[in-house]
Amino acid sequence: MELLTDARARHFVPDKYVFPPEKRPALLPDSDSPGVAFPVIDIHPATLSDDRRRRLVVAEIIQAGMEFGFLQVVNHGVGEDVVRGFREAAAGLFALPAEEKLPYCSDDMSRHFRLATSTAFHRNQTCYWRDYFRIRCYPVTDEVTRHWPSKPPTFGISLAEYSTAVHELSQTLLRLIAEGLGLGANFFAGDLSAGVTQMNVNYYPPCPDPTVTLGLFPHCDRHLLTVLSQGDVAGLQARHDGRWLLVPAVPGALVINFGHQMEIVTNGLLASVEHRVVTNTTAARLSVATLVTPKMECRIGPAPEMVDEATNPAKYREFIFSEFMEAYAAADASRERVLESFKIHH
Q1: What's residue 33's pLDDT?
Q2: pTM for the full model?
Q3: What is the pLDDT of residue 7?
Q4: What's the rounded mean pLDDT across residues 281-308?
Q5: How far apart are CA 228 and CA 340, in angstroms?
Q6: In sequence order, what are the beta bridge partners of 204?
Q7: How far apart are CA 35 and CA 232, in angstroms?
Q8: pLDDT value for 36
Q9: Residue 161 DSSP SS3
């Protein structure tokens, strides 16, 4: 397995990364989308402790979920030093000599920690301009941490701090979402969010020609909620009204997007929106996506409070989360194909 991070400097995009014209990214300048902006929401504890301001924040989160499926949060409680510490450790791992990374390279999706390139989906097709490692990161137990790499030396400590802080943030967000939907405050606190948390750390090297390739294919996340650190280099795009909009890199912010399970549980109210990654010519981009996941045996379906048989009947059947994961893999991560397996046609 040859990683992009180990390849010699590229002055052109190799053929295996070149997409056919109809699949190449068409970047939209900001002027094409006047007045469209992904919400940036302040969730400082002082804000949330004031009843009136808390209700406003909750309403903003629900509105963002309905309109975009994406939002950014600031004053979120994950310390800047914690974010920076793990991002630096992750960058250090990608920078290790090829021979030190080789034992971790694998396409075996069952491994607790693996390093790979492109994607585990769309095999034998055009490659994506991306190296990544996928790791089980929370809860921080001996069973999880024994699989973590020992280099760089700061990796384990910084990952434990970051994943614990992000877990606390995700639980705060899920409580706020439950409030906004009229569900019990702890609605999401059980099996719906208690699976082993996975993390994808993505590295997108500078690309000689971003117009002919993609960093990552259009997809929706199969989990409940994603917390993303994209640093100061933008590249994430989300689909909105049939167009791709760039999610800006807001200093200190973390990007939140809803996965398929959130859309299903809310009976389609909070959207799981397609997103992709584009490349650039000048700067490497590192993103850290933490995926809040149900337990594999969790039974999932629209919450009764989100269903009205007369005006808003259930759009999806009940299923076990492990069944969804199998369907997602079989559908090659296609939004339409995977959801079709669970839709109720009235």
Answers
A1: 54
A2: 0.94
A3: 78
A4: 96
A5: 27
A6: 285
A7: 22
A8: 73
A9: helix
Which among 200, 216, 181 has a CA at the least distance from the CA of 293? 200
Q: Residue 159 has which token pair?
A: 């990952």
Where residue 122 falls among pLDDT bands split at 50, 70, 90? low
Closest CA to 229 of 38, 69, 37, 86: 86
Say how far apart CA 285 and CA 297 lie, in whole Å.
35
What total of structural domains would you count in the chain? 1
Q: Is residue 147 part of a domain?
A: yes
Does a structural domain hold residue 178? yes
- For residue 337, being part of any structural domain is answered with no
Higher pLDDT pick, 11 / 78: 78
- Residue 125 sits in a domain whose CATH number is 2.60.120.330
Distance CA 288, CA 218 (A): 17
b/e per residue 15-52 (b: at least 16 CB within 10 A): eebbbeeeeebeeeeeeeeeeeebbbbebeeeebeeee
> Distance between CA 248 and CA 234 in Å, rounded?
6
The span from the CA of 245 to the CA of 226, in Å, is: 18
Domain that holds residue 21: 4-26+34-299
What is d(CA 230, CA 240) in angstroms, rounded to the nearest whole number? 20
| Residue 159 counted as domain residue | yes
Pick from 244, 250, 253: nearest CA to 276: 244
Residue 30 has pLDDT above 60, yes or no: no
35: left (phi over 0), alpha (psi -120 to 50) or beta: left
Distance CA 320, CA 296 (A): 7
